[in-house]
Amino acid sequence: MPSSIPADIPGSARTQKVAVPRWSGLSLMQSELKVLFGRRRTWALLLALAAIPILIAVAVRLSSGVPSGRGPAFLDRITQNGLFVAFTAMLVSVPLFLPLTVGVVAGDTIAGEANMGTLRYLLVAPAGRVRLLLVKYAAALAFCIVAPLTVALAGAAIGAALFPVGPVTLLSGDVIQPPEAAVRMLLIAAYMAVSLAGLSAIGLFLSTLTVVPVGAMAATVVVSVVSQIADQLPQLEWLHPWLFSHYWLGFGDMLRQPVLWDSFASNALLQAGYIAVFGASAYARFTTKDVLS
Amino acid sequence: MNPGSPDPKKRYGLTIETHGLTKKFGHQVAVDGVDLAVPPGSVFGFLGPNGSGKTTTIRMLLGLASASSGTVNLLGMEMPGRFHEVLPRVGALVEGPAFYPFLSGAANLHRLDAATRHTVPATRGARVERALDQVGLAHAANKRVHAYSLGMKQRLGIANALLSHRDLLVLDEPTNGLDPQGTREVRHLVRSLAHNGTTVFVSSHLLAEVDQMCTHAAVMSNGKLVAQGSLADLRRTGSARVRLLTPDGGQARTVLAGLGLDCGAGDAQAGGETLLAALAPASGAPSTRTDASQQAGSGEILAEDIVARLVAAGVRVRGFAVERESLEDRFVALTGEGFDVAQ
Ligand SMILES: Nc1ncnc2c1ncn2[C@@H]1O[C@H](COP(=O)(O)OP(=O)(O)OP(=O)(O)O)[C@@H](O)[C@H]1O
Ligand SMILES: [Mg+2]
């Protein structure tokens, strides 16, 4: 008898013989999204993210104008064009705020269920360990998409409310109209979602190691901070291209005419590598783990 | 399903069958070579004091924990290898209920029902409603679980086990935290489910509970299975003894000794002396591991023969009774008297 717990094998010959018909492969995914985006904590995280552009916009509005060249990039342009609130807020949230919220969500995936004890009931339902892991990761990715979008949309909304909106001058010097600027904003949000995919995989793996969700969350955030610090140290230059945070701030290329896709592609490839490594680790760990909580 | 008609799915012999099931946590052997045999249609009590390995065994049955060695068969299929065929037919309550505190009772059941591909979404609402109704939670269906009392959570846990048609229910201490009314309802529920053909495997440390609702039982002690069989068998295994009240103690002792019955020191009281003597266990010894000493009696002696001999020897018999050891005495004899948990 196998002493380890085998993985769910969807569509295997055995599954076909099951007397109970197979229904609704996606119902767990739906349920997971409903639980994730229905709970207050997720809303609190998103509200905190939305507060960043609001804070920036209000501060700029109340002050007598920002001297050119000080503060985060784009900050000095806000008074002329409200759309820059969104760009500024996205830039500001990359190093800490986005990784923080993603760390909370990704670190909670398995450990949170284990901590509540619901993991054992999901598994005896049976959800299937591999299926559950995939659904959990997909839900974390959904959050990675929603989080930067929240910053962008809140930024655009508050910017439009407090400042004039007009044509945007790109980093390459070209000028685009507001509708195209909105498309660029979505491109940046997509860039950030991709950026956070690797960190989510790390969080998912850490989450399979413990039944204390706060531990996995904190560890995930610490990993993201350490990676960014390491990226600053010239002594570790050989390591830089391998750090998952290496391209996090490269989304400026989305603000050129034409769009420069190099950093997007490198970033996507790097994140795919992290997903493969930590996804496999999470799989190896979770499919053999004793659920004793 | 008709209670009488055989279920075509039940082509397997035993509903739960384990061989040499063992679980080690480091150096500690939490479950030690357990051979369970749970017949279909039974209500099987899984008894044992705290820390004796009941929950750990259940975790291995359900594939939550892997066995250090040994095999598990559920519904005739090997676990955990064929979990996706087995588990949809098994309802379980493991080590207490667990729910999302921020969701309502009904939403929790929806979530757990949606977790598997083997349930029909179209009937989900109706099944959730029926399960909540069965455990008396219909009025609290839309309340968040964090506002549930302990007993309400326990009931919701049982409702979760009843969401679909099940061939086997594994309930780990289902009456934990329930009020007397709830306890009675659970007993009633278990009986009616068993009547409809569901095999129920229920762990407990309450003997009275097992006594009242089970047809079979197994006793765990210190990770080992020390007895297993039908409740009638378990009772019969317990040694019987005779209680004799007589003023002629010395003579009675001689007669009893002649019959191969050993009686301890008498207990003097008004009207004479009370003597207690262990009888050999009755015939048809069941498949339980019992102390060799209990089987060392000298064949069968009928109670009326003892009285006849006593009277023939001139012993005045003022009181005579054959007493069976109660199930509780038996439980204590098997698991030890001490209050401390074993490990
Ligand atoms: N995760 C674990 N790590 C180490 N030891 C464990 C673990 N879980 C259980 N044990 C040990 O295994 C033994 C059996 O525990 P188990 O929970 O199976 O007992 P039980 O019979 O269910 O007790 P109770 O009646 O209190 O529920 C205990 O000695 C316990 O200390
Ligand atoms: Mg227990």
Structure, explained:
- The complex is a heterodimer of chains A (293) and B (343).
- Chain A contains ten helices and two strands.
- In chain A, strands 1-2 form a two-stranded antiparallel ribbon.
- Chain A has 293 residues and is an all-alpha fold.
- Mean pLDDT of chain A is 88; it is low at 1-21.
- The longest helix of chain A is centred in the middle third of the chain and has 34 residues, at 129-162.
- Chain B is of the alpha/beta class and 343 residues long.
- Chain B contains eleven helices and 15 strands.
- In chain B, strands 7-8-9-4-10-11 form a six-stranded mixed beta sheet, sandwiched between helices. In chain B, strands 1, 2, 3, 5 and 6 form a five-stranded antiparallel beta sheet that branches.
- In chain B, helix 3 crosses helix 4 and helix 4 (124-134) packs across helix 5.
- Chain B is elongated.
- At the A-B interface, helix 2 and helix 6 of A face strand 5, helix 2 and helix 3 of B.
- The complex binds adenosine-5'-triphosphate (ATP) and magnesium ion (MG).
- Magnesium ion is lined by residues 54-55, 95, 172 of chain B.
Radius of gyration based on Cα positions of chain A: 21 Å
User: Main β-sheet of chain A, in a few words?
Assistant: 2 strands, antiparallel
- Helical amount of chain B: 25-40%
Structural class of chain B, please?
alpha/beta
Strand content of chain A: under 5%
